[in-house]
Amino acid sequence: MPSSSRRSARLAAQAQRSANSTSDDPAKRFGLAGLTVLPIPNIDDIATIHTQAEERRAQLEQGTSTQETLIYYNATTSHLNALCATDPDGRYPGRITFFGDEIGLVFFKMIQPVHEFAHLCLFLNIHELLFMMGLSEKYVPVGSSTYKGIGTRQKEGDSGIRPNPPRSAGNQFPTLAIEAGNSESLPRLHRDKDWWFDNSPPNQPEGDVKVVLLIKVYRPTKRIVIEQWYRYSQSPYATVVITPHPHKPFSLQDNSYWVVQGAPMVIPFQDVFLRPSEGQETDIVLTEDFFANMGRRCWENETRV
Asked: Which end of the chain is more exposed for a tag (fewer CB within 10 A), N or C?
């Protein structure tokens, strides 16, 4: 079966399961067990989402909630347009991932300092490696730009990279996308990964996303998990886990306090630049030392903010 047919069949099956489900737990219905999933307010009351977002931010700061994402079902483009209209700047209350009218699932991610620092630390290390290869003019960093997917779907990513010059005119997807989540289940982040792959189909004018890096941050235990995903794979290609040392005293100065498993992580050059490497160009190698430093700096930043 062609990839586009497989994708359409999977999305149709998800929508059908949602429509036919008699479960009282929408989280289980959408494969998000353990998370709070709410019906989206009526359009007349849509501004309450902004209030709920502020309440969630306060809960996250106070440590009374660990779910950084507001998740709603039965959402439509009309709901989202009305929500933007209630904000003076025409913004959503968090970074959005919308799975389209036919599925009706939407995420609003509340951004926190450790979340931002985690994905930016990873991106900046990749940038530094590419700069040393003399490639600073050969790629474009992408931040929380809004990407239009298939039909009514849309998404704001965390960070990523696309080649320069661009592959073609239009809605330029990154070849490498980075998504971070704070203290939530991996199924929530896996939904982000699925969105990138499902909505940037191969051989389309905008080009496909080749690699997605997921960063899951556990604030209570200071644990960080980084997964490297490719299209159609059933499990991550590589997983790196950063944890505090079980016996050493806690330290924000000593990288050796942070235990790294699964390094190095290697991102093939051709998957990012869509061509073979030349001269001093190499695959992007994220080392054990880098990940130890990432762990230390993430929690140093969290402690000082």
From this structure: N
